[in-house]
Amino acid sequence: ATRACLVSRERSCPWAGAMSPALGTEMPRGEGGSRRSSWGLLATAAVGGTLAALYAVATPFVTPALRKVCLPFVPATAAQIQNVLKMLENRSGSLVDIGSGDGRIVIAAAKKGFQAVGYELNPWLVWYSRYRAWRDGVHKNTKFYISDLWKVSFSHYRNVVVFGVPQMMPQLEKKLEEELECNDRIIACRFPFPCWIPDHTTGEGIDTVWTYDLKHSRGCEAKHLEITPETKV
Fold first, then answer.
1. What's the family (predicted)?
2. Hey, which end of the chain has fewer CB within 10 Å, N or C?
3. How far is 217 from 182, CA to CA, in rounded Å?
4. Predicted pLDDT at 39
5. What's the pLDDT tens digit per position in 178-215?
6. At residue 220, does pLDDT exceed 80?
């Protein structure tokens, strides 16, 4: 009777005999879920670490490069570079780019034969500029310095390129007026100086370039031609 009952129960409940195997398969499923959870945590940590690294690298490129005014890094366009080079035609001597960013203007000027120097407060951009100059084969004609422009004298440069913002231009105009000589040329990109009258202007919109020859701004030519008559006794 007992055997018949057992057989009867097995026939009427076909899933009853499968209980043990089914229960036996639950453990592997739990282990697989744990593995997937572990991999998920690892993937999340890896993504988080990657984003943190990218943030650490990218942040210096977009934070202000000058302390006195907010001047974020904005790369020079190809048109701006060509306009600057156009304003440097028939010029020679040393050149400095104030706020040189990733070194595009300095490298382009060096390829035209200038001994070019860039000043930039952002160390990441300076290191990248040095790499680009080495890659382009002009590292011997270029130098990049990590420095605040307000602490640097530009008196020994004959050509000055400036990428600035309106807030800094009045003070920078005064600084350059005190430090540069009559034969020096200043090229302003994106924003002009407030008081000087440009001798040349080229480009449109954000690619506009203003050129100032200090010999005209200071009236050096008039002083040079001025003759003091001798008084006869």
1. Belongs to the ANT/ATPSC lysine N-methyltransferase family.
2. C
3. 9
4. 67
5. 999 888 999 999 899 999 999 999 999 989 999 999 87
6. no
Distance CA 57, CA 151 (A): 26
How far apart are the C-alpha atoms of 65 and 150, rounded to whole Å?
12
**Domains defined for the chain, CATH in brackets:** 78-214 (3.40.50.150)
Looking at the DSSP bridge assignments, the partners of residue 200 are 211
Tell me: the pLDDT tens digits for 191-200? 999 999 999 9
Determine contact, residues 125/105, Cβ cutoff 8 Å.
no
The model's pLDDT over 44-78, given as tens digits with 9 standing for 90+, comes to 666 665 555 444 444 444 444 444 444 567 888 99
